[in-house]
Amino acid sequence: MEPLRLDPARLTPEHVAFRDTVRRFVARELEPHVTAWDEAGGFPRDLYLRAAQAGLFGLRLPQEFGGVPDTDFLHTLVSCIELAQCGSGGVLASLMSHSIAAPPIAALGSPDLQRRTLPRILAGEWIAALAITEPSGGSDVAALQTTARREGECYVVNGEKTFITSGMRADVYTVAVRTDREARGARGISLLVIERDAAGFTRTPLQKMGWWASDTAHLRFDGVRVPAGNLLGAEGEGFRAIMRNFTAERFSMAALSLGFAWACYGEALEWARQRRTFGQRLIDHQVVRHRFVDMLAQIESTRALLEDVAWRLDHEGSADPGVVASVCMAKNTATRTMQFCADAAVQTLGGMGYMRGTKSERIYREVKVNMIGGGAEEIMKDLAARQLGW
After folding, report:
1. Is 300 a catalytic site residue?
2. Are residues 95 and 168 in the same domain?
3. What is the pLDDT of residues 41-90, one digit of tens each?
4. How far apart are CA 120 and CA 128, in angstroms?
């Protein structure tokens, strides 16, 4: 399947070259293996090293620590669309979990903490995970209950996190904690970097509807002592950093959803051109052709929206209320496009679409995690409304 057409007026030669690099990596390193990895419930750890060597890690992160220079949100859009052509959200969720765990370290970590962690993460030597969600709060980040009490040169952390991507295998975790137990809501929330071998830190694997190849865990902190130097920024600054990080994460999820929709479209179109029923190809039936037009219409409108949002993120910033609202709406739009195209593709493939091993079947199972993860649809709508001053 050819690449999804993006506006040539926006793409630079560097964007095109990067897209080709990602496309080759997917064809060589991911597509031949994702079905086996899905069934096995994981993938080889050295895939992180190979992805880093191919230049897939480090978008919009400092070059001095291994980041890719001169990259923007359009690079993110291009990368996510191409990565999604492997048809496995589970592989991508864990392989790219550093993309939501490392930015707060790059933005707020001390120089020493950055030097100790970022080069290893961006080289694929360390796996990084972001730990925000709790059993009691879900999308309500301001209600988090995990505490970090300062004792001398350490923080003592107690609490739980759940639904944490790369939660079992990660070497380092960016964790949201409440450092001021008297504060309410968003006040008093901070970010700490916690390493996997810390005493009192335990992890339990979780089983999921989809994303089988991604390890997901419930985390527990029982009196875990964390060096005070692992605090990101100042105490109480965590909520703002989390929200800014969420904006980039939600854009990436929207871009991946668009890519998965394109993957479903491509697999179903190839099938419809080959499969024959009632003496003609599936694609020769008017009702089937109309289904593909409906799929493509949603894909094209979502593509145009995400290109515009990428430009706004780069030129207006991820803290601008209007941009935040647009990212929320774009995530909802893209995940609904993914849902529609996954359903249409499975319907087109018929019995084969219900068989494990097709991209469309796997993506169909994974739709809901895209619609819920990073902020559920209802949360996105309400956040957008509040950012717009309604």
Report:
1. no
2. no
3. 999 999 999 999 999 999 999 999 999 989 999 999 999 999 999 999 99
4. 10
